[in-house]
Every structure is written in structure tokens, then in C-alpha cells.
User: What shape does this take?
Amino acid sequence: MIDATNTSDASLPAIDVAGLECGYDGKVLLKNLNFQVKRGEIFFIIGGSGCGKSTLLRHMIGLRPPTAGTVNFFGECFNTADAARQREMLKRIGVLYQGGALWSSLTLLENVMLPLAEYTPLTPFERQELAAMKLAQVGLTGYECYFPDEISGGMKKRAGLARALALDPAIVFFDEPSAGLDPITSRKLDELIVNLRDLLGMTCVVVSHELASIFAIADRVIMLDKATKGVIASGDPRLLVKDSADPRVREFFGRGEDARQKPSP
Amino acid sequence: MPEKPTPTNAHADPRVLTQLKDDWLVVELRGTWRITEPRPVWADLRGGLEARRVKLKWGKLENWDSALLLFVFEVRQWCRVQGAYCDLTELPVAMQKLLGQLLVANETKVNFDRASDFLSTVGFAAQDAWAKTREIATFVGECVLSASYLAREPKKFRARDCLDQMQQCGAMALPIVSLISLLVGLIMAYQSAILMRQFGADIYVADAVGLLMVREMGSMMTAIILAGRTGAAFAATLGNMKAGEEIDALSTFGIRPVDFLVMPRLVALAVMMPLLALYANCLGIFGGMLVALGLLDIPPAAYWVQTQSAIDLSDVATGLIKASAFGLLVGLAGCHCGLRADRSAEGVGRAATSAVVMGLLLIIVSDAIFAVVFNIFGL
Assistant: This one.
């Protein structure tokens, strides 16, 4: 929550990625990645399909070990830390997966209560109160006792977000939050991310290629490229779209403009 | 009034200082508050102090999260119960907003009880049973229609898929069928030897093992193995396909899922099951022969001659007819449960379990029916 970090040194970035090389099964998808994410920032990782956005996310949250380089959270290296320390660091990280990834045998309230039961000394009543509040924060009051297969895709994502926020993480990762949502639901989810960031002070890292979301809520972006296997642009998307001379960047951001124009006969 | 600090081990621990000024109880919040760590308990801090007015003061707070929120909520709720005034104006806006959200969540009644009464439960169960019966009947009907359609349009039959399924449920099942059948033959020979020896009729072990294997155990044990192995696999595969909307994609192309997915599997099982049963019969008889040789000193040649005299073609035929029927039933159960699975990981698991249970049930019930029918026809 508010400055809920492991360090009192506020000058350290929330995330510092240095020389990271990502890949799997002997394939290198991304190499020599260097970037930082500031505290309280909404940071987007963007790029075309297959450029390695989700792979980078999986490396950052420790689901895949990097072949080279480091990922530091608040100045502490995650991938060289021992298993116990990694577990401690993961408590400060929340992840919203693409489809919500709710546990299907548990109700929404139980989904949010599970991390609280696992990691906090709260009483069952307090856990329930807090979980209900988290669901209320994402606009799911009244759905506490619903099972995941009884709610819509957008609601699943919001419930997934409530679960990601259960332990008041300092950093929340979002994997394609707008995927599969209609524009209105998608915009509401974007607004929710901004509101929660403003209220809770968390750092948000969003993997997406939705231009509407990028321009609506991103403070800063990095753009990945499949051919280069690295970052080809970084900065404020509103400036990038105007100033970037790179044709790949212009093409990516130009899609939105093209789509709004009527194709010539 | 002296300050009452909470017990603390480190500077960063959550700390609360309480001070009584006039009729105000000033509660100052300090330190680091983490939801994953224990936090001070208001009832312990308050001790015997009584106040008509409580002021929450934002002190030297390093970090805070929901742990502090819950503490503030606890104080506020205590004030409410005691009828004391609670001053929260010194708290930052973010904390006040979060407190408001927690209060709303607290006042919203969560309806946990979704269970219905006994009569409703029985009613719903009866409705469910009736719906399932209709579903099964419909599915069997769809399979019959599909079979007649494919008989008229044999080119539409997915022969390649069928061969692949034959490989999966037939050839790949040979090791487990071999082991189980051999052991069943051994067990039956041991058990019948105990009885036969009492009458000096050791050689009739061959009759008992041969007849039982060929008429009953060969087909039934194979069917049970395939219900667990193949029926569950059918249900899981089709359930996953349903969850991944592959079945919907077939339907939107105008391709009936039963033609495309179910019939190749049913045919594969109906063909492979008699072959596997025949193989199981041989292995079972061989198992009996081993026991006869080792335990009863009956030479294999004598055992084989005795087996041949005990079994005729009608015994083999009845076993194979049953095996083919069991194959169809196991396939039907697996495919039905898979196509009716819920679109979730749990739904797929439930479908696989149901397929095994339904398959076993159908095997036993149909075996009983076969016993009666064969008896009537003198087979």
C-alpha cells in the first residue's frame, strides 16, 4: 500500500532490470534488456504479438529463471535471492493473469481470502472483512459467494485484481488486462487501475498492446521488437507517437490512427 | 499521563502511543505496519483507559497497509459500541477513503448460505436425474443417427482418427491388459485349485479357469481397464476441447461433433475391445496353466486338452459379444461425459471421474442383462 516497500530508501526504483536475457528451451527471445520502473508509475510493456512481452513478464515475476541478467525489486536482486527470500519478496508482488486465473473450486471471497489465510495472522472474521473490501474496491460487492464460472470475463479479471491486491502488494503486474474485453469494460478496468494506483500508491507494470489503454493510463512504456530481440523505444507514449523517427514505432502507434480513417476505395 | 508504548522488538514494528488528555484519548500511530506481520490489538492497548472522545493521530509512520486500516477500523468500531466520539480528521485522505470502503463492506450483508432446504434438494436432485437421463437418451439417439449417416456416407467417417484411437486404446493398452489378465488367471487357478483338490479333481482347474476367462472375466476385466484408461481419457480430451471452444467451432462449421469426434472413438473401442478380450483370455488361460504346472503338477499339454474340451465356440462368441458391447458402453460414457463437461478445469476433472463411474456401472448392469439373456437362449 502507501510506500509499502522493503526499504526506506525512496530513491531506489521499484524495479530495475539489468542485462536481462529471456527465453526458453534454448531459444533466446529477448536479450540485454535494461530498464527501470519508478515507484507509483503505470509502466507498459508493449509490442506486437510474439515479441516476448508475456515471456518478459514471466521472467520478472520469477516463473521462469533468466538465462542472464538480474531483476531487482526495490534494490534487492530477486533471481539471486535464496528461495525463502524470494518467497518473502513475492508477498509484495501481485499478478493479474490474462484470464483472471481464479481458482474455480472457490468462491470469489474465498479466492481473495486464500492468500490472507496463507500469509497473515488475521482472524477469519478480519480476513472476510478485508476480502469483502477488496472485492468492493473492484466493484464486485454482492458477488462474494459466486463461483468463477458464474461470472463474466470482465468480472473474472476484476476478481483476479482483487486477489492480486489481497496482500497489499507494492508492485502489481497485469498480463493483457484488456484482452477479450469490450471497449467499455476495458476502459472501466483502466480507470480502476489508475484509481487503485492513486489510492494505494502501488507500482503497476502492464503488458498490453491495446493502444486505447496505453494512451489512457500509461505513464511510460517500453516497446519490444521481435527482430531486434530487445527494446526499440521507451518513454511517454504521447511523445513517442509524435517524436519517434523509428518506422516500427510509428507503425505500431499508427494502427490507431489508420483504424479511425475510412479505407479508400 | 505516561505514554503506553506497545511491546516492540525493532524500531520498524507497528507502534501505538496512547495518551489521556482531559477527556480525550489520543492514539498515535507509528512504525511500519504490514498485513503479513502481527499488529497491536486495541483491546490490549486500551487496558482500563476509558474515554468519551478518541483522537487518532498520524505519527511517524514509515510504511503502512491494510494492517493499519484494520487497526483504525477496530478503534472506530469500539468507539461506536461505547458511544464514544472518534476523531479521524488527522488521518490522510487515502486512509479515510479506505476506511469508508471497509465500513461499506462491513455493513454489506454477504449471503453465504446458498444451500436449499431438504425438500428443494430432493426436488432439484430428481430434476437433475431426469435431465441427465434425457441427455443420455438424446446422446445415444445422436450416436445412432450419426452411425446411420456415416453408413450411408462412409467417406465422411474419420478413419484416420479411428485408427489413431485404435492405436491408443488397443495397442497401447496391451501391457496393462497383459499384466492384469495373467494375474487374474493365476488368482482364479489358485482359488479353484483349493476346491478341486478336495475332490481329487485337480484337472478341472483348467475347465474353471478357461470357462470363466472366456465367458466372463476376460471381457469384463478388459472393459474395466479400458473404462479407467480410455473412458477417462475420452472425457478429459473432449472436456478440454469443449472448454477451448473447439466443439463450438465444429458446430459453427456445420460439422456434428458426434460424427467428427464420437464415432471414431466408439468404433475404435468396439473393434479393439473384443481383440483385447481375446488376448486377455489367452493370457488368463496361460496364467492358469502356470499355476497348474507349479502347484498341481499338471503338464501344459494335459491342461490345454482339458481347456479345449471345456470351451466351445459359443463360449468364445458370448465373451466377444459382451466385450464389443462393453467397448461401446465405455466409449459412450466417456464421450457423453466429455461433451457435457463444464467449461473449466474442475469441470474436465469431474467429467473424467463421471466417465469412469458411469462406464463401470454400465459394464456391470449390462453384464447382468447379458447373463439373463444368454441363459434364456441357452448359450
Notes: Chain A touches chain B at residues 1-5, 8, 91, 104-105, 109, 116, 119-122, 126, 128-130, 132-133, 135-137, 141-142, 144-145, 148-149, 167-168, 199-201 (CB under 8 Å).
